[in-house]
Amino acid sequence: MPVLEFTLIILVGSCFAGLLGSLTGLGGGFIIIPLLTVFLHVDIHYAIGASLVSVIATSSGSAAAYVKEGITNMRLGMFLEIATTLGAVTGAMVAVYFPTNLLAILLGVILIISALLTLRKKVAQIVHQKNILAERLKLNGSYPGENGTVEYSVSHIGGGFVMMLFAGLLSGLLGIGSGALKVLAMDNIMRIPFKVSTTTSNFMIGVTGAASAVVYLQRGYIEPSISMPVVIGVLIGALVGSKILVKTKSSGWLRWVFVIVVIGLASQLIYNGLIGKI
Questions:
Q1: 251 Cβ contact partners less than 8 Å away, ≥ 6 residues apart
Q2: pTM of model > 0.90
Q3: Torsional class of 187: left (φ above 0), alpha (ψ -120 to 50), beta (otherwise)
Q4: Which residues of 165-186 are buried (b: 16+ CB within 10 A; e: fewer)?
Q5: For residue 75, what is the enclosing H or E element?
Q6: Of 120, 128, 142, 270, which alpha carbon lies 20 to 30 A from 222's?
Q7: What is the DSSP string of 154-214?
Q8: What are phi and psi of 255, to 5 degrees?
Q9: Which of the residues in the chain have pLDDT under 70?
Q10: What distance separates the 2 farthest-apart alpha carbons in the chain?
Q11: CA–CA distance, 162 with 104 (Å, rounded to integer)
């Protein structure tokens, strides 16, 4: 395939990935890796490297806006980043020794699970019960609500920390932000309001991706000819998606579109992994 045609396909596909990722809040890595490996036959390690670079770019841009609005719990995010970074570096170091077909199957399964998790109904929850460890680490916080400042407490610090280790491990191993798992940990384990958990997760994803990307860079798995059109495409798609999201009253149908696309791509990833084409 000619270089120009190859680059244009990646650019257009990444725009689509960034668009859907922005509209659902999970980033474009869920679509980029299957696109590169299944349809363009790129080695999965290079696809993961490109995905990690795009995760850093998109997370850094969107996280800044949420921090400015005062929604993100930065102290909690930095504390949990200790776990995600350790997990991410470990996952990235182990990934190069995994058989590529096994990596593809594992990625496909995680993508399907993560996509289905986006459909779960989110219920606002505010916990005021004090936690000694949370108070000592000053992890409790507040965010601007419709009727003024909303204060909340953080629960089950240990359980959330362990879950973040696992999320970081998967991020480094598979090249995805693991945003769904991070949000799940903060929502269901640490009992943080979902508005805070989603924005804090977005803040953390870039740091987790950067930790993994360093290992992939040292291994030579970040190829500029692949990563550059991926980053540009995802940023364009994410920018367009953010503008659409502001004007869209309900994003329920968007999540269904995202889930259908991801499950379709993940199924192809699993199938190709099983028959040894990856």
A1: 23, 24, 245
A2: no
A3: alpha
A4: bbbbbbbbbbbbbbbbbbbbbb
A5: helix 74-95
A6: 270
A7: ---HHHHHHHHHHHHHHHHHH-S--HHHHHHIIIIIS---HHHHHHHHHHHHHHHHHHHHH
A8: -65, -35
A9: 21-29, 60-66, 118, 120-128, 177-180, 242-243, 245-255
A10: 61
A11: 25
Continuous H helices in 25-43? 29-34
Which amino acid does the sequence have at 104?
A
Per DSSP, what are the bridge partners of residue 143?
A: 150
pLDDT in tens, 176-187: 766 667 777 787
**CA nearest 170: which of 108, 117, 77?**
108
Amino acid code (one letter) for 134? A
Per-domain residue ranges of the chain: 3-274
Which residue bears the tokens 């699970």? 113
Tens digits of residue pLDDT in 109-158: 888 887 787 676 655 556 567 778 888 888 888 888 777 788 888 888 98
